[in-house]
Amino acid sequence: MLWLLEELGVPYELVRYERDAVTQLAPPELRKVHPLGKSPVITDGGAAIAESGAILEYLVETYGEGRFAPARGTPAYLRHRYFMHYAEGSLMPLLLMKYVFGRVRTAKVPFFIKPLTRKIARQVEGTFVDPNLARHVAFLDGELATSPWFAGDELTVADVQMSYPMEALASRVPEVPARITDWLLRAKARPAYQRATERGGPSLLEL
Ligand SMILES: N[C@@H](CCC(=O)N[C@@H](CS)C(=O)NCC(=O)O)C(=O)O
To answer: How far is the CA of 173 from the centre of ligand 1 (A)?
Structure first.
């Protein structure tokens, strides 16, 4: 989010909401901005906009002046739209499951049910989460073999939308392919990304 604002050169005010240290959930005050109380959320001209994809589309349509989105009707536009949806629609739910079942596996529970919770977590990870994640990693590796950014030679808003799941992927999946780490390095090398990190802190906290 901040990355795109920095790329666009749009001035913004950052308001921080701290997660609960135990549950990792957002504080209830955030529900005053939007009923679901999730991050990110922006307010602009009196409107509150939630959902990362909707926020990024709004920003690029309002302030992009043709930048960071391919021309409509082109194959690049279709690819950019695909990744705008894929990031939170397909990849992030799996990464969230990986996080949740990791927590179930290591949760502090009475010793006599520990073998059970550990077994359930391992079974879901082993039969569903990990094989699916492996397919996604192979898919992303193949996609990045065709172009440096997700929708072609230029950075688009789809790359910004993919940045959070890509970081989560690299931190939760051991030994991701070089094209995935290269993409992350390319993103992090951009001055706007660095300015966003300086202002907002590292984006990847707990999921
Ligand atoms: N699909 C939403 C996900 C929003 C979401 O779940 N955000 C997380 C942070 S990445 C959050 O607010 N977690 C704290 C909570 O659930 O209370 C989006 O893309 O904006």
So the answer is: 20
